[in-house]
């Protein structure tokens, strides 16, 4: 049996950047528009939100935008978030508010996945390796102010079950403690939310590591302790883990930043009334 009732993918922004960010060793020069997604899982035990999107204020406020999206570090600029894409608006279309979310599960702590956590007063779950790496300051995709209140978060180690039919899966590589999620639906195939273990369908089909990889926990000198070859192998092992599980269970693999895949999913189950 599964406790899952419904699953909604929520488009909470878009970001344009070079495709090489998603595919390791791809030559630069092709710009893609990537969806920024959160996933709402309604269960008999409450509502879980996998990822929470960006901090809208850092995008909307010119001073904050200039501070956080300095072109020297973000050459492709900040994400785009329309009013209807704000996570509060997405939830409102489902008759919900942030107070109706019971658990915010952060697949990883990059700004486009964890930035909106301040909008939620619920339990926040994160992997220990992910939080430790973020707090070290060594992961440039993390905005440190978005870790405020982390002392109250629920910190986990390894795979675990949130409720019957919702399982957290360790898939490091893109980040130190990246987590994917297995969701068993009340009907149809299970879903594997890849998170940024696989931005694109190409990451899965061709087994290509993400273009941005965690290089390992910093040593005493603050520099990475493992090389790029180990980082790539770690990311590929995560992709293969997801593919193997999908084959064993007949599950669907949902890449996280693939606009073509998201549009096909949107057509299959139009927002806001869709459920897988």
TrEMBL record:
GO molecular function: hydrolase activity; metal ion binding
Keywords assigned by UniProt, alphabetized: Hydrolase, Metal-binding, Zinc
Keyword Metal-binding: yes
UniProt-listed InterPro entries: MBL_superfamily_lactonases (IPR051013), Metallo-B-lactamas (IPR001279), RibonucZ/Hydroxyglut_hydro (IPR036866)
Cofactor(s) needed: Zn(2+)
Stored Pfam families: Lactamase_B
Domain Metallo-beta-lactamase: 35-257
Similarity annotation: Belongs to the metallo-beta-lactamase superfamily.
UniProt-recorded name of the protein: N-acyl homoserine lactonase family protein
């Amino acid at each position: 049996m599964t406790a899952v009732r419904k699953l909604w993918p929520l488009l909470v922004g878009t970001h344009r950047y070079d495709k090489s960010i998603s595919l390791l060793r791809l030559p630069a020069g092709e710009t893609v528009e990537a969806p920024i997604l959160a996933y709402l899982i309604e269960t008999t035990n409450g509502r879980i939100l996998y990822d929470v999107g960006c901090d809208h204020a850092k995008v909307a406020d010119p001073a904050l935008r200039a501070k956080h999206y300095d072109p020297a570090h973000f050459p492709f600029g900040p994400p785009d978030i329309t009013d209807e894409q704000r996570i509060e608006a997405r939830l409102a279309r489902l008759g919900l508010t942030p107070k109706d979310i019971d658990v915010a599960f952060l697949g990883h702590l990059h700004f486009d996945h964890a930035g909106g956590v301040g909008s939620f007063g619920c339990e926040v779950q994160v992997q220990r390796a992910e939080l430790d790496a973020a707090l070290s300051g060594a992961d440039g995709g993390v905005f440190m102010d978005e870790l405020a209140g982390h002392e109250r978060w629920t910190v986990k180690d390894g795979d675990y079950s949130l409720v019957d039919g919702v399982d957290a899966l360790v898939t490091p590589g893109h980040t130190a403690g990246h987590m994917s999620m297995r969701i068993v639906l009340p009907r149809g195939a299970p879903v594997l939310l890849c998170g940024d273990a696989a931005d694109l369908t190409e990451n899965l089909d061709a087994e290509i590591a993400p273009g941005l990889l965690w290089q390992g926990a910093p040593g005493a000198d603050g520099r990475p302790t493992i090389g790029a070859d180990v980082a790539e192998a770690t990311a590929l092992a995560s992709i293969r883990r997801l593919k193997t599980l999908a084959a064993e269970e007949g599950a669907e693999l949902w890449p996280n930043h693939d606009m073509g895949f998201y549009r096909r999913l949107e057509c299959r189950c139009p927002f806001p009334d869709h459920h897988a």
